Structure formats: structure tokens, C-alpha cells
Amino acid sequence: MWLWQGWLAAGKMHILGGAPGTGKTTIAMALAATVSVGRRWPDGMRAPLGNVVIWTGEDDPRDTLVPRLALSGADLSRVYFITDVREGNERRSFDPARDMDKLTRKLIEIGDVRLLIVDPIVSVVVGDSHKNAEVRRGLQPLVDLAASMRCALLGITHLTKGTAGRDPVERLTGSLAFGALARVVMMAAKYQEEDEHGRTVRVFLRAKSNIGPDDGGFEYDLHQGEMKSHPGIVASSVLWGNAVEGTARELLATADTAADDGEGGTSADAKRFLSDLLADGPLPVNQVKADANGAGYSWPTIRRAQKALGIKSSKSGLKGPWKWALPSKRIQQPEGAQQNAEGAQQNIVSTFGNREHLRDDSDQNDRGDSDYAEVEV
């Protein structure tokens, strides 16, 4: 059974890889939104309606992922975030490497789970993620869980620096076992050239499939929008474009994957790099610095690009990190975004003993997260 014919199969493991700034997580949220409302996929096929469970070790659900889901038209009552584990009177963060039994029980309790997203998938592995045996040992319980629950498992990962031109599956970070265990491997990338409107051309590609076609994909664009009901909260969403033909290796040959840029980089390159990196929303300056270094840009070049783009620095609270964000602007919601948000709930599973409901009472045009509150039942 397919959630999306040729792309997402029930009970199977999938990998979505890409360089920083390609919008991997935003794409994953778009896929989650589609399942949560039973909307049509980019090729026109309709998704089966179902629940989505997400675990992320990289993004905060409230200020990052929920706004993205809302702008993508998700039914938030069907989206569940795994956050904490309760052990007696103590709480700790969910650890996918040791809490698989608890996750299994929670998925059974939620019911009708069609899609399980793990970001990053490497977090499941205890030990060296570059060793095949340890990766297989770490991933197998999650693969078995997806098979038993008949839900599609989607793991998100980065690409290894300096691997341009190699087989796309070999470019995934870590052991080759990540790509070997996945039935379908997808890639997100961006072309070096711009289209006739001056926009960066991005492509979502199928790089491997053991159960169907292993080529082709779709163009997409990343748009930032400010939540109408919550001014100041900016999120990104995906707008799907035309279908593309060819193998991932052929299509990636002309794509700019950011992490493989040459040393130094021009001012124009740096501005494009920063724009793409921050397209998904604000990032800590330390992360920007690390990603820029990995992409071969000097910090003075990045600072000049920051000034040219009007990127602002902000700090949350006394102890919060400094973050960079692109200037806010209003962008229309993606076509097909759902407007029936009245009474929608976001479910954050913050303990495996209780389900917590985070309710949004905003207007029906979008569903921001600033009105959400955690409530134990």
C-alpha cells in the first residue's frame, strides 16, 4: 500500500537528504500536512487521511514546526510531536535509541498513524553512525516498528561535504547502511542558475527505490509567510512546481547543494547561501557560522552578505542564543492550504503517560502557535 505512489510506502523506511538551506524539514512538514488532511500530492494523486507522528531533535515544534504545518494547511489535530518521557516523577527528553517500546505503545494509543518522521535519523543510532553494523542495529527496531504499524517512516539527514558528483545515495551522511535500509531515498537540492523571475530553482528528487521507479521529481519553491493571527511569527512553506525527468545523479550534476561550494565564494554566492539557509526561518548565529564554514565561506564574507540582505540579529531572553532572520514579508499561502482550522488542536506527546493537547484559538486563515499551552490530562 502506498501513501504516495512511488514515493511513500506504508510500512517502509524512507530517507530525505539534502544540504543546509534546501528546505528538507519544510518539505517533510508539507508531506505531513498532506497526509493530515488527505490532500492531493504534487502529481495529483490523493493521500490517504491519517495521523502523523513527529520526533525532532533539531527544531522546536512551537516556534518552528507548527507554523510551517499551519501555513501548509495541516489539520493540527492529526499531528503529534514526541517530546518527553516520564519515568516515575521525573521527565527526560525522548531518546529514539532507547525508547522504542514506549514509542510503540504511544503509536498504538494514538491510532491510525500513517506517517512517522524522525529528524535527524542519525539520532537513532547509538555509537558510530559511520559503521554499518551499528547503524543497522540502531535502525532495525524503528524499521520493524514502521512495518508492524503499517506506517511510512521518513528519516531526514544531511549530505556529506565534498561528495558532489558521486552516487546520490553515497552522499548521505554516515554509513551506507542508511541508504541501504531505506526502500526509497529522496533528495532536495537547488540549481546554481535562477529562473526567468530571478528565483532559485529547487528540485525534490527520487534517488533510489527498491519498490518502484527511481528517477524523476518535482520543482518546488520555499516561501516565507507571516502568521496573520500572530504578527512577527514567520514560517516557511513549500509551493510545488512542475514535474522533472531524469535520474537524480543527472539532475544533481547541475544543482548547487551549498555544502559542496568551493572555498571562498563571491559576495553574490554568499548572499544566495544565506538566503537559502535562512529560508526555513531564524537560526542561531553559531549554526550559521558552522554551516558557512562547512560551505567554504569566510566569516567576513558572510557578514557582508548579512548586511546586504538586511538580516537582523535578535536574542530571546537573557540566556537565549543570538539568531539571524531574513526581513519579514507577507507571502500568500500555498495553493490548497486548508482554511478549516476552527477548533484545531496540536497534540504534543510530552510524556508517555499522558497526551497533551496544545490548542490554537486563532482565526481560520492560519494556525499559529503562540496561543498554544501545554495541558496535562
Descriptive account of the structure:
Strand 16 and strand 17 form a beta hairpin. It is built from nine helices and 19 strands. It is α/β, with parallel strands linked by helices and 377 residues long. This is AAA family ATPase.
Strand content: 25-35%
Q: What is the element string, with H for helices and E for strands?
A: EEEHEHEEEHEHEHEEEEHEHEHHEEEE
Total beta-strand segments: 19
Mean model confidence by pLDDT: 78
Q: Looking at this structure, what is the CATH superfamily of the largest domain?
A: P-loop containing nucleotide triphosphate hydrolases
Biased composition (Basic and acidic residues): 354-370
Region (Disordered): 353-377
InterPro entries: P-loop_NTPase
Protein name: AAA family ATPase
Observed structural traits:
377 residues; alpha/beta; Rossmann fold; Arc Repressor Mutant, subunit A; twelve-stranded mixed β-sheet; three-stranded antiparallel β-sheet; 9 helices; 19 strands; 25% helix; globular; disordered C terminus; AAA family ATPase
